[in-house]
Write a structure and sequence with these properties.
It is built from eight helices and seven strands; from the N terminus they run E-H-E-H-E-H-E-H-E-H-E-H-H-H-E. It is an alpha/beta fold. It folds into two domains: 204 residues, Rossmann fold; 33 residues, no CATH class. Helix 4 runs parallel beside helix 5. The termini are far apart. It binds nicotinamide-adenine-dinucleotide.
Length: 257
């Protein structure tokens, strides 16, 4: 099967967090050439996705915080498409709470969705790939926050740093099966949700954030999708275990004297 841009993708791709933001942009890039299994807890958002992108989108509603339901969800997805050859673990939450005010419940929620769910999704898909004797490619959506500490995001930063290392371990374990695992680490990406935070924080704080980005602006979700498609495709056949920054240079250092 051929993806847009002439890059070859092996077959159906499962995208979590598909109903909005970065996940939705990735769905838009892959369809209609590739069948997409769109996973999200936002059922109305999945219906809109189908309306916008058509029949190559298969909605797979589910809550990825429910670890014990993930294997059933993947079985449903696999049966819908007959196979899964690519995965994008994009669902994530990013609440901002100083550590001394952070409840155990909030910590657990962030880790459950941002770190445990990608593990459970990968484990379930990869077992089926191995049983079906097919290879595949997995892309985990990490964050610049996996490397840059910032007040209020201890749980988020820890979850994304964990996701980087999970990516490396998965890459090593599954390379013999022809399954590659990489991550992307976006910086400040102007999704609706992020811009809601930015508006709440005020213009001055937003401009201070932009001043720390060498490229001098936030990125758009559409600026990540070619990288994701590249990592899903055979064009990246010698890449595994990598964490690819897409952050306008944010994590390089301090962009002023
Ligand atoms: N936007 C940024 O600046 C940025 C930067 C770095 C990394 N990221 C990462 O990119 C990913 C997407 O971010 P975004 O800004 O597009 O977010 P978003 O809020 O726009 O989209 C997240 C999607 O995940 C879904 N979701 C949330 N909880 C879920 C659950 N329990 N089960 C199933 N689905 C669930 C939501 O319904 C939503 O559709 C996240 O993992 C985030 O950490 C975002």
């Amino acid at each position: 099967m051929t993806g847009t841009g002439g890059i070859s993708l092996a077959g159906p791709v499962l995208v979590t967090g598909a109903a909005s933001g970065i996940g939705k942009a990735i769905v838009g890039r892959l369809t209609p050439e590739v069948a997409v299994l769109a996973v999200d807890r936002d059922v109305a958002g999945l219906a809109r996705l189908h309306g916008e992108f058509g029949d190559s989108v298969h909605a797979v509603p589910g809550d990825l915080m429910e670890a014990n339901a993930i294997d059933d969800l993947i079985e449903r997805a696999w049966d819908l498409a007959g196979s899964i050859r690519g995965v994008v673990n994009c669902a994530g939450i990013y609440p901002v709470t100083p550590m001394l005010e952070m409840s155990i419940a909030e910590w657990d929620q962030v880790l459950a969705l941002n770190l445990r769910a990608p593990f459970a999704v990968m484990r379930s898909v990869v077992q089926r790939m191995i049983d079906a004797k097919v290879g595949g490619s997995i892309v985990n959506v990490s964050s610049s926050a996996s490397r840059l500490a910032r007040p209020g995001i201890a749980h988020y930063g820890a979850s994304k740093a964990g996701l980087n290392q999970l990516t490396a371990n998965a890459a090593i374990e599954w390379a013999p099966h022809g399954i590659r695992v990489n991550a992307i680490a976006p910086g400040l990406i102007a999704t609706e949700n992020v811009m809601k935070y930015a508006r709440a924080a005020g213009q001055a704080e937003h401009e201070a954030k932009l001043a720390r980005i060498p490229i001098g602006r936030e990125g758009q979700p559409e600026e990540l999708v070619d990288l994701v498609q590249f990592l899903l495709s055979d064009a990246s056949s010698y890449c595994t275990g990598g964490v690819f920054p897409a952050d306008g240079g944010l994590t390089l250092g301090i962009p002023s004297y």
